[in-house]
Protein 1
Amino acid sequence: MDKNKRELNNDRSVSPEQQDIYNEIIESADEMAQSFFDSGLSREEILRREAENKEKLEMEAIRADIERRYSAEVEETMRSVEHISSADGGKPETAKLEEIINLESFTESAPVKKKKKRRVKRRKKTRYIDLDEKNSIYRFTYILGDLVAHFFKLVFGTLFGFIAAPFIRMRTSVKDEIISRRMSNALNESAIEAKAQRRQTRASFRNIFRSFRHPLSTPAVILHYLRKSFGRPVLRTALNYMLPLAAVALLILTFSYWKNVTFALKVIYNNESIGYISDESVFIEAKDMVLDRLSSNSITSEQTTGAAPGNLNAGYELAVVSYDKLNDARTISDKMIENSAENLTHACGIYIDGRFICALKNEADAKTVFYKILAPHEDKAEENGYVVSILQEIEYVQGLYPDDKSIMWEANELESYIEENELINIKKSVSTSEVVEVPYPTVTTRDITKYSGYRVVRQEGISGKKRVTTTHVYIDNELSTTYTTDEVIIAPQEEIIVIGTKTTYGGVYIGQASSMGFLWPAPHCHYISSPYGWRSSGWHKGVDLCTSNGTARGTPVIASRSGVVEVVQRSSSGYGNMVLINHGDGYKTRYAHLLEGSITVRIGETVEGGKTIGRVGSTGNSSGPHLHFEVIYNGETQNPVNFIS
């Protein structure tokens, strides 16, 4: 605002009266902006209103400048009029000037000096602001009303704050006082209840101890005080919360316990507990293992060193144990041997196909025995490209074994025993592989919107590839078995063929297509008068179709399959009127001796299977009305019956 004042003060073309008016307007706008700011308006709103006021002030200044210049021109004109009037009366010229400027204020006959004096007097209602005097009053009234409204808003807002503040503080203090009073009462009641509980507890224990002098009354006294204690609200409330929590905790503990334990059988052998098993079958398996390990293959069962089979029975007790305490059959067998035989030692038991043979003190010695048996065959296998192995399954089981010569052998004894009893067989696997082509499958789909002769390959079939491996298995150089395995390299893509199923075409019954996709070319002629092959006149390249009663003439001839017309012949010799259709997959069909003027197709036309292409006639070299029909595949004629039946 001060900047606007300075700009207006620096403008020397502004009259003193205008300067006073501008200063008053600027001061009022400044006061209004200050009142807006004091009333709590945002900074952005104040800046916006200042910009609007500045724009209004600029418009007022422009309007005032225009009025000033207009007044100066009017004064200059009046001086000219006075000069003319003083010379010769000048009434006609004055009237012309009044018509030119059309100003009502100069139509009066008042002297010019009074106008000049009125202009000299520094009043607010000067003539050069009369053009916008009404708008100025409205604007001043609006500004004044806006200032009054904001003033009253500020006054009443402040007044309401002063009036409401005590009530707000009172309400807050009352609320705080109520809360504090309730908390105080709750604490006092809790303290009183705790004090009474302590007092009652002391009295209860004192009376209970006194009741010990009369033992018969003690239970009744204890029951009395228990009922009395449960009747108090503090204990009852505590129990209401504690009992559900205790139940939940008990449920969690129970679930956690039974999650890690299971029912098992505790094995009692020779009056000693030797472990836990999941079921009795584990002990039976362990018992068989003990019998194997306590016996020898070189002696009879009567010479067995160790426990007799009758002493291998055990007792069971039901128990609840964790899963990690369950034992397998091998562990149980070790503990049974510990309790059954004396002079035990740790060794490696040799099992061939699950049968116990002997025990060696060193597992490496046992493996060396079988390596010596297989080594000569491995050298030949590496040279010839096949695989050799021992046919039988060999197991090396560490455990306790009786230190007896009938069970505990040396490596050379094991080697001699295997050789004498021929316990080991050499398995030789010779494999050969080749890549073969896999034919693609054909899927036929039926389209009820197409005619019976319609046949289109929607998806071409692609053959796949697979690797076929043939393995010949020899046992001791004698062929035992042969088997093959297939490995798909490229999967085949199936061929999809769409065939039509409609049995009528253009009102003509065309029937169903054969498995080869061909229709019977003459639907009304089912009698074959001359078959395919040799006859008296020579080799017959097709079949002649007619009716048995001689009514074939004029009956329709249809395209046996979809294709493109390749030849249309109209002749009186040979085939006579003839149509040849190319089906595009190496097959062509010929229709000869057609009726004169009955051919309805032209060369290059695409026809659907079942469409009528002519009628049965007897043109060309023919002995009567019939259809000569040929099927040609890759240039060679075929027996049509194999395709249309």
Protein 2
Amino acid sequence: MKKKKLISGLLCLAMTATLLGGCAGQKTTEETADGKEKVTIALWGNQLLEHYTEYLCDSFPDVEFEFTLATNSTDFYRFLNDHDDLPDILTVRRFSLKDAVLLKDMLYDLGDTELASTFYGTYLDHYTYDDGTVNWLPTCAEVDSLIINETLFDEYQVEIPTDYASFISACEAFEEVGIRGFVSDFASDYTCMETLQGFAISSLLSMEGREWRQKYESGATNQLSEEVWLPVFEKFFDVKDGIGLGTEDAQMVNRDPKDLFIEGKAAMYRGTGADIITFPGRGEDKVLLMPYFGDTQEENWFLTYPTFQIAASKKAMKDPKREELILDIMEAMLGQEGQNHISYGKNMVPYNKNVTLELLPELENLNPYIDENKMYIRLASNDMFRVSQSVVQKILNGELTTPEAALADFNTQLEQADASDEKVAHIDNAYANEFTQKHGNQAASAIFNTIREENGVDLMFGQSCYVASDIYAGDYTQKDLSYLCKNDGGYPVIVTLTGDQVYRLVESTLALAGNRGSICNDSTMYVSSGFEMDLSKNEENGYVLNGLTVEGKELDRSAQFSVLIYSDRDWYLPVILEKIGCEEFNADIPNCNQYLYKRLVEDGGQLAEPTDYLKLR
């Protein structure tokens, strides 16, 4: 086993600099000019910008972290690996061994580390290949099941369900008084997949179900077993008919069921522990997270999935001292304090033995299920997301009318490729996705300049880490192009601002803390397009704005500008717009990748040239 060293011992190490590969020679070495060791981490989602990145920076002051926001798919790392450009530490939420197997030889084997030994064997089995290799480890679990409004049940004297039959009875009772018994956002692929599996967990965890899953995850089969999966579809049809799900439900997007719930128009919906915090009924209501109900109470299960999985590039671990440093960083990410920064809402459950996470009172009914290990980890391959959505949508829309037809359609779609390997674009010039004081982030600048030109706005302002990789010179498939910008979490909006408000936009953003748009270091700095920023940096105050210019001339505070903002729309944008006194924005515009697709594919053009948009003193 590899021995863990104290963080304080590692911070004083001087390490040999070697070139980062895969970036056409444009990136700097593993050691920065001030002697800090550079470590690249791809973050699965912008949630980690709130507290987690700052925690890592504070824990390792002698490390220069380079953070990017990765597309939430192991195939994104396949794309990076094709260019010999894997980050040092990888994270992903949507995960299955089946999807990750292509990366197996490129990733570090954690199987014999002390870090892996901290996990319960039951959970570690889901990450172990037949030869014993363990590349990925899970952080704490998001619990995904049924959220019920207990107050609403009491008001209408409906008994709280304890099993599947009483769940259906409760739904029928609420429907009789004009309240939806159960709703969910079936327009979302994850909801289709999780409800399909959640209501039939006992079938999926039968001996035959476990054997089938092992074959599927190992790549031995790409078809659903009739013995295991026909009962799954039979149960879903029963749920559909018992609740009365239909076309209207198939069209529900993420906020629709939550809005019904907080208005008292729905008694139950599929949700997570995080949703209990964000959407707690009508305000004073008592809400609970309940399991997916089985035919008996003994067959009730909670569905879980790790907040994200973590792995390390084998290439990053070649130097023994660097190997120890990265293992220490991973230990900090997966340890007690690290997981506290993930589960600060007290809504998650640990998979490892040495971590204890406090639960909200609304989640305390989880404890018996945790003790009995009745926490099912979802099967979440890319194909499962894609095909579950298609098949469940067809069921709800009446296009598939029997469980047998649904099973057959699912297997047919599993045989079909997800996307074409056809090359649709060629990019001539490569740009490095890293921050330098002289040029800022040139990859992000090229992309933001392109988006601004395509949209026609005067200015653009966005966080550089939403550009997820280098821009590589060469051919791109449609899927590869989609990896240039992160779209799940970052959405563009257009606002009309005075020059004075543009100043306040930049100043307020630089001062923002504990938010999904927060800046923790240079790699999470914002990029400007159409104007330049003059900033100072110091340890006490972080980043301070000195001035803004347009083509070298001071930005006119009295002028009016159309501005495209690209960052988190739900957490960052409301806070910033309030601070600058802007009440309206237009979100009905294409996502950033659609602008890039138009420029590179439809118009056959090239990315705009990057600009030196930043002076950092």
Protein 3
Amino acid sequence: MSIEISITGDTIETTVVGGSKEITILGSGDNTIINAGVEGKQGPVASPDWGYYINNAQYNRNDTIITSGIVRDYILGINTIYRFTTTLKNANGYFLEDSFYSDFDGVNLTNLLATRGL
């Protein structure tokens, strides 16, 4: 079994050859084609959770205060992602919301990536 990845414009198409799974991922638009061998069983492709982002993204110390909380810029690979936390905390001391988003226009966050489970 192998994985073939082809890039057209901003779309990366990933196909598992010898299997039945196919996924499409938005990408950076470079023209790289990658073929990689995969050993073992291919399981379902899961979206990264909050722990993945907090452990792999680098905080770049750029904060924006908005009405409902604070937006912090993080770098993940070559992309900027945004961590939103409310200023209010629950009885256990956790933020009422602690989430990562892929887009922020200075006021609104869109395209939720993951939320911390409380």
Protein 4
Amino acid sequence: MGLLNVFREALQTGYYTLVYLWAYGLSVAWVFILAAAFQTLFQEKRLRQHVAHSKPWQRIARTIALGLFGSPRGKIIVKNISWLISGTDALWLLPLFLVAGCNLTIYYWLLLGPLLGKEFVMINVVGGVFFLLATCPALFLLDQAGVKSNGTIGHGPSLGDARSLLWRFAKALAREVATVGPWLMWGSFLGGLIAVWGLSQWWFDLSQIGGTKTWLSQFLNALIGLGLAIATFSAPVANLFVATYLWKTGIALSGFVAYLYGVFLSPLLWPVYVQSLGKKGTFYLLCILAAGVIAASMGVTAMWKLAGLSIHYKLSPNQLL
């Protein structure tokens, strides 16, 4: 198959994926509208202010809200990561924001179910819980060692009147479409490439590496998923489509989870890590995050196997081509 044909079929697959979401009854436009509405009502500057001056349990809740109701736009993610590392005295809050801000935004709640099934929404959530259990204690110890920089805390405006709310909503919607939209399109194209290659003769079943349905196979697939996330410069929202087609073309459940959560180790985030923690602190942070991703992948796999839960398939690649 020629390179041009591969690109053509990848674009076709990505287009059909978006058409499927529309036909499913979920217009992508509504996702943008809901995301903009959340950002209007839950302003990030006000949430950051409350995070800095709260009791521990309130800080946890407000850090999650900062990510959950925020935007997965690159600049916003980077700014909030920088602030959490440099502007607070709690480095252990960082994983809470990463999970909520990268993998639990409105895009994942509304798009992951139609693409793969409701069980994958739960897999994403459970994976986040395992990731937090593995990383928060380690980052607390890293925080106690003093591996962080100093920063300032921003203060935000009040909600204001209805006219101000409508204006902020309009601006938030425009920014969301202009910045997240291209990543969504890029993710659908990259996912289309995975689908096309997955139907090629040279493609092999990743879940068979290390044996059939063995723990070694699951561990190796977790490493593969994490490696692919780093190699493809995984980004929020875009990783949703790539992970979907990695699963449909044979990667094991652990690899699927590892790719979704490998976004935290994307080279796109390395500069802000280095700027806030230095090279040595960034190395420690990346090692902890990588261990957390593997722990989340294996934890989800173990939980699903022990509970005997079944996983259904939806919209395999050969139904799109």
